[in-house]
């Protein structure tokens, strides 16, 4: 038998598809980034709010949120899974439109983003966000 490699657990949150899901996801991402010593979580909170809102409004079934730290790139990857078959796309909304700008905003704030289909059904929408670590308060 070869060596066993233990992988760190990926922080994961499973949400019911309701109007409260974006707020829970935002708090979850913010807490994970704080654990990693990242205090500037504005972009990550905005991105997860948009992705989870899209999953709630246009997806199907429970919503899964995962946060993966990419220390080498100074970034985090946020994944939002849902069972919906539709694929999100960037719309160019008119000035009078009251919605439809979320993914455009995400695409401008992200290092990269994309969509991967799930084998069972549904998709993962992922976004890589730049972050910078800060020293934790109270340490010397």
UniProtKB/TrEMBL annotation:
Coiled coil: none annotated. Keywords: Kinase, Serine/threonine-protein kinase, Transferase. Residues 25-110 form the Histidine kinase/HSP90-like ATPase domain. GO terms for molecular function: protein serine/threonine kinase activity. It comes from the Bacteria. The keyword Nucleus does not apply. InterPro entries: Anti-sigma-factor_SerPK, HATPase_C_sf, HATPase_dom. CDD domains: HATPase_RsbW-like. This is Histidine kinase/HSP90-like ATPase domain-containing protein.
